[in-house]
Design goal:
It is a single chain. 40% of the residues lie in helices and 31% in strands. By secondary structure, it is an alpha+beta fold. Helix 1 (2-22) crosses helix 2 (28-41). It is globular, with a radius of gyration of 14 Å. The mean pLDDT is 94.
């Protein structure tokens, strides 16, 4: 658990530095590329628009969705450029975690003048 918490702390710090440098107002892809670049520079494996398998409750594969970023094969990052994090954004990341059977995710919003980031754990 300590490794994932340290990874989340590192991603938070990098994302905040991106927010300070670039501000708000860019398209989501700009922030995705910046975060991927800086997290790679920090020594982590990063996949952009990575397909994640989605399973039904009985284990049947029912499709894929594409994670904005998958870091070190354990942390899903969902990026937004909205005025504020909304309940539907939270539902989206929780749905991704549940359906993909992954445990850790972060929702980062670069669209607000205030930096917004939330960590989620799905423990079924």
């Amino acid at each position: 658990m300590q490794n994932i918490m340290a990874l989340c702390d590192e991603v938070r710090d990098i994302a905040y530095a991106i927010h300070v440098y670039h501000g708000h107002g860019h398209l989501e892809k700009v922030y995705e590329n910046a975060l991927a670049h800086r997290v790679r520079k920090a020594g982590h494996k990063v996949a952009q628009q990575h397909p994640i398998k989605v399973y039904d409750e009985d284990g049947t594969l029912i499709g894929d969705y594409f994670a904005d970023l998958l870091i070190d094969d354990i942390l899903i990052i969902e990026l937004k450029t909205a005025k504020a994090i909304a309940p539907e954004h939270e539902a989206q990341i929780l749905g991704y975690l549940k359906s993909s059977r992954m445990e850790h995710g972060m929702l980062i919003n670069f669209g607000s003048y205030r930096f917004q980031i939330r960590k989620y754990i799905w423990n079924a």
